[in-house]
Amino acid sequence: MPTAQHSQPEPPPHDLPALEAVRIGDAAKPFLPGLQRNAMLRKARLVETASHINDWLTSPGLRTPS
User: Fold this and answer.
1) In-domain check, residue 65
2) Which pLDDT score is estimated for 4?
3) Does residue 1 belong to any structural domain of this protein?
4) Residue 45 pLDDT more than 60?
5) 18: containing domain
6) How many domains is the chain partitioned into structurally?
7) Each residue of 24-40: pLDDT tens digit?
8) What are the backbone dihedrals phi and psi of residue 60, each rounded to the nearest 5 degrees, phi first?
9) Is 37 part of a structural domain of the chain?
10) Non-local CB neighbours of 15 within 8 Å, separated by 6+ positions
11) Are 47 and 17 in contact (CB under 8 A)?
12) Confidence band (pLDDT; 50, 70, 90) for 42?
């Protein structure tokens, strides 16, 4: 008799960039300071910034410029 696999629920799409930034930052931790680690940390910051911009653009309080 097959057993059911319990999987974790998928995170909402708007949370994916923030989760990716955390994942990249964690992946950079084992590296010694240098070019590769700096590139990974820079990518994590860029993804996090994109996440913040997306949150701002989709916020209900955003008004069009007058």
Assistant:
1) no
2) 62
3) no
4) yes
5) 13-57
6) 1
7) 989 999 999 999 999 99
8) -70, -20
9) yes
10) none
11) yes
12) very high
Closest C-alpha among 44, 57, 56 to residue 18: 44
Task: Tell me, yes or no, whether 25 lies in a domain.
Answer: yes
CB 21 within 8 A of CB 48: yes
Q: Do the Cβ atoms of 43 and 22 come closer than 8 Å?
A: no
pLDDT of residue 62: 66
DSSP of the chain: -PPPPP-PPPPPGGGHHHHHHHHHHHHHTTSPSSHHHHHHHHHHHHHHHHHHHHHHHT-TT-----
Q: Assess whether pLDDT exceeds 60 at residue 1.
A: no
Q: First-to-last CA distance in the chain?
A: 65
Question: What are 57-66's pLDDT values in tens digits?
Answer: 888 886 776 6
Angle (deg, nearest 10), helices 16-28 and 35-57:
170
